[in-house]
TrEMBL record, chain A:
Name of this protein: ABC transporter permease
Keywords: Cell membrane, Membrane, Transmembrane, Transmembrane helix
Gene Ontology CC annotation, any one: plasma membrane
Main location: membrane
Pfam family, one: BPD_transp_2
Membrane-spanning segments: 30-50, 70-96, 103-124, 130-152, 159-181, 187-208, 215-234, 268-289, 320-337, 349-366, 373-393, 399-417
TrEMBL record, chain B:
Region (Disordered): 1-23
Top-level taxonomy: Bacteria, Bacillati, Actinomycetota, Actinomycetes, Micrococcales
Record's subcellular location: Cell membrane
CDD domains cross-referenced by the UniProt entry: TM_PBP1_transp_TpRbsC_like
Membrane association type: Multi-pass membrane protein
Protein name as annotated: ABC transporter permease
Organism: Cryobacterium adonitolivorans
Key words, A-Z: Cell membrane, Membrane, Transmembrane, Transmembrane helix
Transmembrane annotation, as ranges: 39-60, 81-99, 119-138, 167-187, 199-217, 251-269, 299-319, 325-343, 350-367, 379-401
Any GO MF annotation of the entry: transmembrane transporter activity
The keyword DNA-binding belongs to this UniProt entry's keyword annotation: no
Pfam families the UniProt entry points to: BPD_transp_2
InterPro entries recorded: ABC_transp_permease
Gene Ontology terms: cellular component: plasma membrane
């Protein structure tokens, strides 16, 4: 907070989500962070630059429209990108100097350029399958997005949802069993939603009825679900794997026409049903929260329950049912593990995805679209490492694996800064 | 959140009028105090959780399932099968964690209890760290990373440096605690300087620490020369914690250190100037700021202490439990278990100590339960989490056992809002 120095004259209206700031703040954080990354990029791409040619493969073999491979000479590309990065840094510094807000798109462009530069550098004399890279990123991001949406709904209504991990795991477990028994992936999907709702019921009952600290319930629920699924897995699923743990996976569905668009088509429109449900869910949650009566009430309860109660909204009921809805959404994400990607339940198979989703919620500032983007970023970063380990990157693989988390820390510290949740999130409402 | 207040009156007011104190006898008063007190809730919570665990053990037992097929012709079969399964599992749990009656001498029989204390040692240390964070309104999920960094620095001192016995141990200990404190303090610094939410940064730093240690083990200064195994060299004898009860028991000096850490945390939070500021920030950062406390600085200090205590758990692993060299899984989930321990201990030092011993008992007993009865270890997670849930909701336990609500009925229920709420 020490950096904040209010300026009298706002030169640009500030979005309401920006928190308490009412004036544009002359903060050098963004240029400094960009500068650091520019120097790092320059060192990597030019000083320690590699010679050769990087090949970006833009089309898959099954595409209708074949794009030619893009050949980038590694070192010159690095030099050009370094210059562009330096230019953007300088421009942002100029904008701060003249008390303008550095727009998010400029930072995004910076990020994309840096990424292209890095990919070019890493893939000297190698081929990078761009559609494969993006496709895998989306796949890894799907459960994170569902989890983050569940988190956004729950926290917007005023209940901190640390139990995303538990909801994902419960969804994965139940969908595996139900889909294996019925041989119907759709029923498995439904069962995953029910399982997520059940976890949410406990969260809601303890935090709303018994006023137990929501973080406590969330953390404990994660342990409880881990224990329950682990116990039942060892006792039931492992001995009867053939009948109980062989769910049919969803088939990929190619959407006609859309799936033939170069690059975008193979990535977004040759996916399974769960992914299409995810697109709808993101749009629905966004529209619902910000443009419907339901969303207005939900946000009112999360921001100021007393005021909401005064105008006749049933705070307890709203919270209870929306937390349950959040559980259903997160449960869908769990089903993706068993019905979409892996194909069988494994002990603790979510492996902390719920916590990453929680980070995406906060990173996305409790906004469904931004949380989705944050989840996509996490997915991309994890998959980047997979791709680079295949083509053989000159950096030790551990550092590649570390990169997404480091970038997140930098981003959260430098660009997002103090994030503010819904005002009443985490506080039980006691009607007086 | 002091112990005296803890019979948290979170109940809704019940219409049943409490009996006039003058009319009740002394014994009735005593009885009432026992049934409404905090201790009874804890005991009943443990019992309830064990009961749920028993149901799960019975339902998944193959003998029980088999005899359930002819339940209506011979119900006794199923009941005795269920009893066998449950009593077998729980007696194995007890004998693995407290006292083994099958051993002839007391010295052998008590060995499981020393195991319990050995398992409890890192849980208490890390639990204290998480609890300290909670009291300042910080949610430290970064136990894993802090433990790993502590193990890295302390472990390196333990196997690479030559020092006389005793001094070597202290040096390794200090290095480990410092490592944890720095990794934790980084989070505090980021929060203070930039407002980055500590939940994000701690989770991210967990992964960073994990991959950093993996790299160091594979190709860095933790690598064992001439080995492809990602495992560090063994700690030198001069640095290892000495055994408290001789070589037959695993209990080591770390337990004494943890008692010391508990006293220190108690003093820090309850008696020191800094602890007062910590709690003020935890209760209400805005009020603390108005009162002239630098909230930012308190965040940094609190995370330094929190990380240092978790670091103690990390160094305890290297110098006490796994002295033959460590891998990247040296934290073995303690950083996350510590959150539950801190919650069960209500973020109070001695509460954390007791919770740590209880969880240590579950951990020690679960292995013998799995070995003797084939009950998966995961059942312990279920029981542990249920205990925390039930203890956190006294009205639920009272409702189940039909206990009276404590004291005179209040007009307004007071919420059970703790520092953990603020930490989110």
């Amino acid at each position: 907070m020490s950096i904040i120095a209010p300026v009298n004259q706002p030169t640009q209206p500030v979005e309401p989500e920006e928190g308490p700031a009412t004036a544009v703040i002359k903060s050098w954080k963004v240029p400094i962070i960009l500068g650091v990354f520019t120097v790092l990029g320059f060192l990597l791409m030019v000083v320690f630059g590699r010679t050769g040619t990087s090949t970006m493969v833009l089309s898959t073999s099954s595409d209708l429209i074949q794009l030619p491979d893009v050949l980038l000479p590694t070192l010159p590309t690095g030099i050009v990108i370094s210059i562009l990065l330096a230019g953007i840094t300088g421009f942002s510094a100029w904008m701060v100097q003249t008390r303008r807000k550095v727009p998010l798109w400029l930072i995004s462009v910076f990020g994309v350029l840096l990424l292209i530069g890095f990919l070019t550098w890493a893939s000297a004399d190698e081929r990078i399958p761009v559609p494969g890279l993006l496709f895998g990123s989306l796949s890894l991001a799907v459960p994170l997005i569902f989890g983050a949406l569940g988190g956004v709904i729950s926290e917007r209504v005023g209940v901190v949802n640390v139990a995303i991990e538990g909801q994902l795991l419960a969804g994965a477990f139940t969908s595996a069993i139900v889909a294996s028994i019925t041989q119907q992936p759709l029923l498995g999907l439904l069962a995953a939603m029910v399982a997520g709702v059940l976890v949410s019921f406990v969260l809601a009952a303890f935090s709303i009825k018994y006023f137990v600290d929501q973080v406590i319930v969330g953390v404990v629920l994660n342990v409880l679900v881990t224990g329950l699924t682990g116990f039942l897995f060892s006792e039931l699923l492992a001995p009867n794997a053939a009948t109980l743990n062989q769910p049919p996976k969803f088939e990929r569905i190619n959407i006609p026409l859309l799936s033939e668009i170069p690059i975008i088509g193979p990535v977004f429109f040759r996916q399974t049903l769960i992914v299409y449900i995810m697109y709808i869910a993101v749009a629905a949650v966004y529209f619902g929260i910000f443009h419907t009566k339901w969303g207005l009430r939900l946000r009112a309860v999360g921001e100021h329950p007393q005021a909401a109660d005064t105008v006749g909204i049933n705070v307890t009921g709203t919270r209870f049912w929306n937390v349950s809805l959040a559980g259903a959404v997160a449960g869908l994400g769990g089903a993706y593990f068993t019905l979409g990607s892996v194909g069988a339940f494994g002990k603790e198979m979510t492996a902390g995805a719920g916590f990453i989703a929680l980070a995406a919620v906060i990173f996305g500032r409790w906004d469904p679209i931004r949380a989705t983007l944050a989840a996509l970023l996490f997915g991309f970063a994890s998959n980047l490492q997979n791709v680079l380990s295949i083509i053989g990157s000159p950096v030790p693989s551990e550092f590649m694996l570390m990169l997404p988390y480091l970038v997140t820390i930098f981003a959260v510290a430098g660009l997002v800064g103090q994030s503010r949740g819904p005002a009443a999130s985490g506080k039980p409402y006691i009607k007086s | 959140m002091s112990a005296a207040q803890q019979p948290t009156p979170t109940t809704t007011p019940t219409p049943t009028a409490s009996p006039e104190p003058a009319e009740t006898s002394r014994w009735q008063n005593v009885f009432r105090e026992i049934t409404t007190g905090n201790a009874i809730i804890s005991v009943l919570a443990v019992l309830l959780a064990l009961l749920v665990g028993a149901v799960m053990i019975a339902l998944t037992n193959p003998n029980v399932q088999e005899s359930a097929g002819y339940f209506f012709s011979r119900p006794g079969d199923m009941l005795s099968a269920a009893w066998d399964a449950v009593s077998g599992a729980y007696s194995a749990l007890f004998q693995g964690s407290v006292y083994n009656f099958r051993r002839p001498s007391f010295a052998d029989g008590i060995r499981p209890f020393t195991e319990t204390l050995t398992y409890a040692t890192p849980l208490i240390a890390a639990g204290l760290g998480v609890a300290l964070g909670f009291r300042v309104g910080l949610f430290n999920i970064g136990g894993r990373g802090q433990m790993l960094i502590a193990a890295t620095l302390g472990g390196w001192v333990a196997f690479a440096v030559d020092l006389p016995a005793g001094i070597h141990m202290i040096a390794a200990l200090v290095a480990g605690v410092l490592g944890g404190a720095l990794w934790g303090g980084l989070v505090g610094l980021l929060k203070a300087r930039t407002g980055a939410h500590e939940v994000i940064t701690t989770i991210m730093l967990n992964y960073v620490a994990f991959y950093l240690v993996s790299f160091l083990l594979r190709d860095g200064f933790l690598k064992t020369p001439g080995s492809n195994n990602p495992k560090s060299p063994a700690s030198k004898e001069t640095a290892v914690f000495f055994d408290l009860l001789g070589p037959n028991y695993n209990l080591h000096f770390g337990f004494i250190l943890v008692i010391g850490a508990t006293v220190f945390t108690w003093w820090l939070l309850g008696r020191s100037n800094l602890g007062f500021k910590f709690r003020a920030v935890g209760e209400n950062p805005n009020a603390a700021r108005v009162a002239g406390i630098s909230v930012q600085r308190m965040y940094v200090y609190a995370m330094l202490f929190s990380g240092g205590l978790v670091g103690l758990a990390g160094i305890n692993q290297v110098l006490g439990t796994t002295t033959s060299g460590f891998g990247a899984g040296i934290d073995s989930g303690i950083g996350f278990d510590a959150i539950t321990v801190a919650l069960l201990g209500r973020s109070k030092p001695w509460g954390v100590f007791a919770a740590g011993v209880l969880f240590g008992a579950f951990k020690a007993g679960s292995f013998s339960m799995q070995a003797a009865e084939g009950v998966p270890i995961d059942i312990v997670l279920v029981v542990q989490s249920l205990i925390v849930l039930f203890i956190a909701a006294p009205p639920l336990v009272r409702a189940i056992f039909r206990l009276p609500a404590p004291g005179a009925p209040r007009r307004r229920p007071v919420p059970n809002v703790t520092q953990e709420v603020v930490a989110k």
